[in-house]
Design a protein that fits this description.
The complex is a heterodimer of chains A (266) and B (92). With 266 residues, chain A is mainly alpha-helical. Chain A folds into 2 domains: 198 residues, Substrate Binding Domain Of Dnak, Chain:A, Domain 2; 64 residues. Chain A has 6 helices and no strands. Chain A starts with a helix and ends with a helix. In chain A, 30% of the residues are buried. In chain B, 47% of the residues lie in helices and 14% in strands. In chain B, strands 3-2-1-4 form a 4-stranded mixed beta sheet, with helices on one face. In chain B, a hairpin with a 3-residue loop joins strand 1 and strand 2. The longest helix of chain B has 18 residues. Classes of the chains: A mainly alpha (266), B alpha+beta (92). The interface between A and B is large, with 40 and 34 residues.
Chain lengths: 266, 92
């Protein structure tokens, strides 16, 4: 028998089984309606959960992107100092991160698709539940138990099928989300441990970051020194200029700092 | 004829579509039985595309079971097998 037919028979068998359980089909309607509302709540919760996972992955992507940028900066700095070895190491780390970012982006797309699917499923189910409620009230008001039986069979199997479908969609979404959450958890731990932070926390990385830092602080000292030298040279120049132009002007403000110059001037 | 694509909803198709669908369905079924993942993915994709092409979505408040039910587009071959093994995947 065809696959499509077999699947529909399985659904129908489940609906029939549920319907057979009740002596008065009108009770089944109420019970089913209660279950529909529960399922609707569950789907909405499912949508929220998938959205939370999606946001978490987004956050991680941003964090990793920031770290990749940091490594690029480090590489640039290293190259500027003629340390190609360090630049290469930083870029190697960056490419490792890039792999994780790509993986997260795939997960993000999957979660987004799952979220959209569940949102649509929830809208669909809501419309069906509403239709079911209307029909249920009509049937209960109008028909005897025996008559109701035939009237509601159709609506009942229709809603059962929808519920089976939605129930399965949630199940699948949950399974997927759980798998991703486990991986997201591992990445959160890595981020928290600082292992992905920059090149500074994994074995060899200690050396790179320390060297880079040492070099950059060295160069910072050098460049600041140069700047200071240049500035003080100018100060001396301008000090002389002022001195030449108006002697007494510097006055008491400069008593301490300007002492040597003051003496020189005397 | 009402056909449900799981995860997508129900569509109404003319009876005349059945012949085309049956051929595509047979290909999916053969692939499932053979455990041929690649063929299964292609065949299922073709079957669902045909259903979407030939069918029109039912109204929102339509409450009726389907004549035919198809697995979701991203179903794996194992999932389909589990669905067919009855007490497996489909919640009752």
């Amino acid at each position: 028998m065809s696959l499509m037919k077999r699947m529909s028979l399985i659904f129908r068998a489940k609906a029939d089984k549920a319907l057979d359980r009740a002596e008065d089909p009108r009770e089944t309607l109420d019970y089913s309606y209660k279950r529909q509302l529960e399922l609707l709540a569950k789907v909405r919760k499912g949508v929220a959960e998938v959205a939370t996972s999606r946001k978490r992955v987004e956050l991680q992507i941003n964090q990793l992107n920031g770290q990749a940028q940091k490594l690029t900066d480090q590489a640039q700095k290293a190259l500027g100092m003629g340390r190609e070895d360090l630049a290469r190491e930083a870029l190697t780390r960056k490419s490792g991160l890039q792999g994780q970012i790509t993986d997260l982006q795939t997960q993000h797309a999957q979660l987004q698709a799952e979220e959209e699917k569940l949102t649509l499923a929830s809208q669909r189910l809501q419309a069906k539940v509403e239709a079911f409620r209307t029909r249920k009230e009509t049937v209960k008001a109008t028909y005897t138990a025996a008559e109701a039986q035939t009237r509601i069979n159709e609506a009942f199997s229709g809603i059962s099928e929808e519920m089976g479908d939605v129930g399965m969609a949630i199940q699948r979404a949950e399974d997927k989300t759980q798998q991703m959450q486990a991986r997201a958890g591992a990445i959160d731990e890595l981020i928290a441990s600082g292992a992905l932070d920059d090149a500074s926390s994994l074995g060899q990385g200690d050396d790179i970051a320390r060297e880079l830092e040492a070099m950059s602080s060295q160069s910072d000292v050098e460049s600041e020194l140069q700047a200071l030298k240049a500035a003080s040279g100018q100060a001396i120049e301008s000090g002389r200029a002022t001195g030449e132009l108006g002697v007494g002007q510097a006055g008491s403000d400069q008593v301490e700092a300007g002492q040597p110059e003051g003496e020189e001037q005397r | 004829m009402i056909v449900r694509i799981m995860g997508e909803g129900q569509l109404e198709l003319p009876e005349s579509a059945l012949e085309e669908l049956n051929a595509l369905d047979a290909a999916v079924e053969t692939a499932v039985e053979a455990g041929d993942v690649d063929t299964f993915t292609t065949a299922l994709g073709e079957l669902l595309t045909a259903v979407r092409r030939l069918g029109n979505p039912v109204p929102e408040d339509f409450l009726h079971d389907s004549d035919l039910i198809l697995p979701p587009a991203d179903a794996s071959i194992d999932e389909v097998r589990a669905m067919l093994s009855d007490d497996g995947l489909i919640p009752g």
